[in-house]
Amino acid sequence: MVNPRTQWDPEWLGPVLTEAKKKCDAEILKYQQKCYRCYVKSIGLPQPYTYPDGNPIRPLPPVKVAMGSLMIVGAYPSARFESRPSRNHPNRRRLVPVADNLQPFGREQYFDGTRVRTLESADGLRKYLLDGLGLSPEQCWITDLVKVFLYKREHGDSCRDVHPNFEVPELRSEYRKLAELSLSWLQEECRLCQPRLIVTLGQEVAQVVSGKLNAAANQLLFGDVTECAALDGCSTLFLPHPDACRRYAKWRSRMVEGVKIAKEFLLSR
């Protein structure tokens, strides 16, 4: 008698696959919860770490979490900004960060007090990478290496103008240290995702992931798919950030080449 568990039996296989998916979904949810609770402390961010109005700056775990496909790794999340009147210049307005984005590279549209604003990096990700690959965000695992918004110097200038008593923790200059401390979180995501290909976005992510900390963008971002030791040997392609593609023809051209490389690689696997 043939063992039904060794045959191609859709009626039996369906429940098995459903249970397997439930187990994977549970592991992903467990990671998301851990990231939300523990990430900030694990990389030593100052406490409290907030926006000027007091809203806490929280980690953004990945929300688009397709397994076994393409993993996309950005540098760090942006934030939602509001246009507010300057205290020092009566006819001037300042953009001030006020709240977290909803997810890494999520498509968002909101009113900032003056105009409707979108998350340009999310639009750029679709325009310069995903559309060329014929993929939707739902078919990818999309994350950032550093998982919290980081204040730049210009953010500090704006915040001090609008909120003079707010002490701005300008941590953008410490990106490399924070990224290295965050690498173990990305490694855990790789083990969950089991990606066919990882695409990193921008020079700084490529430097940390590759271990080539002093490599120039022209050296790092013009290569082929490589096996990345820091990410358990996963196949990895270092590409420019969508924001760079939006601003510079050189990086748009490289992204076109990179999309061809990525597409051929994914189709061959």
The structural class is alpha/beta
**Main β-sheet, in a few words?**
5 strands, mixed
- Oligomeric category: single chain
Question: Any idea of the CATH topology?
Answer: Uracil-DNA Glycosylase, subunit E
Explain the layout of strands and helices.
Layout lengths: L9 H33 L27 E5 L4 E7 L7 E8 L8 E3 L4 E3 L1 H14 L6 E5 L8 H10 L12 H19 L3 E5 L1 H8 L6 H4 L5 E3 L5 E6 L2 H6 L1 H20 L1
Parallel strand pairs: 1-6, 1-7, 7-9
Antiparallel strand pairs: 2-3, 4-5, 8-9
Helix pairs in contact: 1-4, 2-8, 4-5
Q: Can you walk through the features of this model?
A:
With 269 residues, the chain is an alpha/beta fold. It has one domain (8-268): Uracil-DNA Glycosylase, subunit E. It is built from eight helices and nine strands. The longest helix has 33 residues, at 10-42.
Properties at a glance:
globular; 42% helix; alpha/beta; five-stranded mixed β-sheet; two-stranded antiparallel sheet; disordered N terminus; 269 residues
In short:
The two termini are 37 Å apart. By secondary structure, this protein is α/β, with parallel strands linked by helices.
